[in-house]
Structure formats: structure tokens, C-alpha cells
Amino acid sequence: MERNTLVYFKRESDRELLRKRAEKLALQVNGETAASENDTGAPEYVFFRMGADIYGLQASAVKEVMIPEEIVSVPCTPDFHLGVVSVRGCLWAVIDLCVFLGMSSCLTSDHPGLVLLADGNSEFCIAVDEILGVSQIPDHSIKALPKGENRISEYCLGITVDLKTVLDGPALLRDESLVVNEYVGTGR
Known about the structure:
30% strand; 188 residues; 5-stranded mixed β-sheet; alpha+beta
């Protein structure tokens, strides 16, 4: 059978026929892929684990994810401020969202990963135990949670069917209580 295939490929007319078939199949696959992407139109979310729970943020609010070499602590900052990290020569604040939101779960990793959030006005990092990846979630699959007494409800878009909490990245970026703007010592 292998010999017959080689003979078949050697004929010029057959090669041209196979090339046309391959192009046609490639167009069909690419067309199907594009159609399925347009049909879903679902936004992408970056998912990560903090403690025992899984959270997601809109990919549009996430600049990048990374595992830092070192987080340098900064004295005289709030408990939720873990320190700063240098990303290509720029200093980014690192926030422990568990502490900031008063959540029952907390970071368990000694060497956390970072999710870098940014918009035109604000930027900071969220420390996470594990970065899980990016997934498309249709809007109708995220069920809104009732507004509660806890602080997380201010930043929660909802919860997915598989119990992942989807956070509102732009709302976090707009929150001025995350900005540390204190001076120590006497001003001159």
C-alpha cells in the first residue's frame, strides 16, 4: 500500500488534486473555527486559586500573569499590601485580595503567583496561590449573587455553574481604598 501511495504522489496531476483538496479542507476547518468563535462571543476570564476557592477576572482587565522572583515588603502599609515587585523596571504594588475583602480563605503559597491588573489610571498585582488559565464563559452562565454584608459582594459579578467566583476587575481598579498614599515622618 505504501508503494502505491508514493506512486500516486509522484504524478503531477494527482499532486495538484491533493493540494486543492488540502486547501479546501483547511478553509473548512478555519471557517468552522471562526464561526464557532463568533457564535460564542463569550468574554474571556483569567482564573486563579486563592486558598481553597477559585476566582476569575475579565481578561480585558488583566495585563499579564507571572511568578515573581521576590516581593519586597514595604513598611507602614496596610495589612492587605504585601509589598512591591519589579516588572521590567516598573514597581507594582502587590495586594492580598483575601485580606482586603475579608474573605475566610487565605493565601497558602509561600511563593505566590501574580495577576497584574491595569487600566489607563490604575495598576496593581493580586497575589494568588495558583494561576489556572483562561476560559471563555458566556454571560448567561454567570449567576449574580445577592448583595450582602461582606465586602466581596461589591466586587463580584457572580458565580459560574462550577462554583468559580467571577470578580469585577475594573471595579477593583477604580477603588481608591487600594491606593496607599501615606507619608511617614515630618513633611518639609
